Amino acid sequence: MKRLLTLTLIFLxxxxxxxxxxxxxxxxxxxxxxxxxxxxxxxxxxxxIETVQVETLPVVxxxxxxxxxxxxxxxxxxxxxxxxxxxxxxxxxxVCVFDSxxxxxxxxIPVPFPFNFNINALSWSAxxxxxxxxxxxxxxxxxxxxxxxxxxxxxxxxxxxxPYIDPPFWxxxxxxxxxxxxxxxxxxxxxxxxxxxxxxxxxxxxxxxxGRPYIMDGWYTENIIMRSALPGSVGSIYLVRAANGQAxxxxxxxxxxxxxxxxxxxxxxxxxxxxxxxxxxxxxxxEPDGANAVAIANFAGGSIYPLIWSPxxxxxxxNYYSSFASGEPSAEVYVITRTGENQSLVYKGRTVGRLxxxxxxxxxxxxxxxxISGGHLFLINLAMLEQKILQAPGLSTDYDWYAPxxxx
Length: 408
Hints:
5-stranded antiparallel sheet; disordered N terminus; mainly beta; Neuraminidase
């Protein structure tokens, strides 16, 4: 029943008009005061997900041994399957991805609140020093606080408080944090704040009232990409300047539920262009002003969610659901170059909640949320197109692993 509820939540997150466009997977939790005892011996189950390769050419070139400082760290949530045990935030060194012999043990991260409500992944600053996290430390789940986590000191600070706060976004230069708020009565707003807690202000006042509510798709330089959450009509994609809230339209398009994902180098936008009449999906890449849109992948029916850029803006990874409404979802994760070359099917599963490139772009992490053995994390070596489950001392598949984030 718990996995069915998880699956339902993921589907609603992907399709909701008011959800964040790039959400982490999340799941319902119940209060549980006890602490998990971390097993020192991982239990690894046999391979259950088929890996299929469309192209034989690798999409990434291997370039010698990796350094620990290049690997980063994987943070995620560790959910016990037994009643009376609590969920914990844990981390695994990125070294475990490519050097299992020198992989340090799983580490539990202390938090100043129990996990009693829906959980989203941590959102990391580009320099990897801090993460933001929206969560309520109150028994009734409101108000929500915007937390700043210092990864080096393992301390938490509250930056802002509203009735409800959606998952936050860092600006590319780490100078701003943007987040959407809801008051529980139907009203919403978008705010920005400095990482030190200063200059908290609303930035949505300049947007047309008839387009409310609005969705954040992320950042483009020092501007927030925003669009109306009312699909099916022609509307504008807006850039909202963080410094003063000034909004300017980028281009007009038929509004859908699909996100517009800006490449890290700010040179392109990727999006799912959905034809409502033919029910076809075209994954397109275009310039930020809407010009020169090129379809790099096409699918009939189903849905595309999520999609992400590699750190160097050369690759796009995305998940395609060929069937969801029938109750038997089939998830296919592809990697393709920005120009539409070397489309490779790198993972097949049931439901995918989140995709992450490693900081160096050589690995793709896939969060499988409802496999036969529960929710777990798989890693794709993009040079060899090989797949393996995440392994580390103390990491057990007797627990579910959810809402991953990769600290640079």
